[in-house]
Amino acid sequence: MRLSARIKCFKYLVYTYVILISICGSAQLVIGAFLLWNHRQYSQIVKNQFWEPYAVLIGLGIISQLLCYFGWTSTTRKHRCYLGTFCALQVLLIVILFLVSGWSVATKVHLIVPAELAIEASHAEFMAHQAPPDPTHIWNRLQRDFHCCGSNSLHDYKNSFPRSCYDPVNRELHSAGCMHVYVRSMEMNMVRVAVVAICSALIQSLGIFCVIQLTLLLRRPIIMLPNGDNQSIRVKRTREQLTPLSPATISRPSQHSGSSSSGSTKPPIPLKPVVPRVDPPVIKPTH
After folding, report:
1. What H or E segment, with its residue span, contains residue 224?
2. How far apart are CA 215 and CA 212, in angstroms?
3. 193 within 8 A of 100, measured Cβ to Cβ
4. Alpha-carbon gap, residue 100 to 122, rounded angstroms
């Protein structure tokens, strides 16, 4: 395959790779924004904690879109320096995605105890200010949306149960406690962040070879042969070209240079006459 055809082939492969990065970045933006919005509805119960992985996922999605623009522009201009920078930044982004995946799993493991403590404290505050009942209170919304009742179970309420603990269809009490249900929901959200991050990292690592190969192909100079083919050459200077020119070499060209000029009989380059330097006489003063 000719060099120009190979460059064109890898150029379109890099374009496809950039589109794939854009799709992954859009998925990170949408999923991260949805998880953050869902978490912010009840974040007061856990004292506004555990929102960082969602925000980081959104930030990485924005960075992926910016890298897509940079990679597309670099590929269009066939700029080797920009392509190398794009490849390095993309490798760094992939490493960060793997780290975010591990961080989300670690957060899932360590959120149970602080989340349970925060939920118990929030429910105790809700019990202290239960009268008059407020249907828009965050605990009423949590019990109604997650189909749970109380912090640990419905036995947390001694005298009467709020209306949010009843199923609106069959008017039965929810038996599950909100602590277990909500903590389980947060754990699943952390798992979703980890899965999205690691899948994006694996998908975006598929096209790194194409960017590297295109960068290497653009390094070679291209010449047009008489038959119309494009070939790459490597310029090598011979030992004769590396030696400095001397008057003898200029006046008497070598046999190799004469044969390479396709039989041309050009006269040697005449040397310019050198005028000898004459110092003026020194006149000594007489005493």
Report:
1. strand 222-224
2. 5
3. yes
4. 29
Q: What are phi and psi of 143, to 5 degrees?
A: -65, -35
pLDDT digits over 193-204, tens only?
999 999 999 999
The whole-angstrom separation of Cα 107 and Cα 190 is 7
pTM for the predicted model, two decimal places:
0.71
For residue 183, give the nearest of 109, 127, 104 by alpha carbon.
Answer: 109
The span from the CA of 38 to the CA of 189, in Å, is: 10
Secondary structure of 55-122 in the HEC alphabet? Answer: HHHHHHHHHHHHHHHHHHHHHHHCCHHHHHHHHHHHHHHHHHHHHHHHHHHHHHHHCHHHHHHHHHHH
Nearest in space to 98 (alpha carbons), one of 12, 199, 24: 199
Helix (H, G, I), strand (E, B) or coil at 23: helix
Amino acid at 78: K
Taking the C-alpha atoms of residue 38 and residue 185, their distance in angstroms, rounded to an integer, is: 10
Tell me: the pLDDT tens digits for 78-101?
888 888 899 899 999 999 999 999
Percentage of residues of the chain with pLDDT beyond 90:
34
| Residue 171 tokens, joined | 């008017």
SS3 (DSSP) at 259: helix
CA distances 50 to 105, 142, 218, Å, are 12, 17, 46
Query: Any idea how long the chain is?
Result: 287
**In a 10 Å sphere around its CB, with 0-12 CB exposed, 13-18 middle and 19+ buried, how is residue 42 labelled?**
buried
Question: 224 forms bridges with which residues in the sheet?
Answer: 230
Residue 95: other Cβ atoms inside 10 A: 12
Token pair in block for residue 167: 């199923």
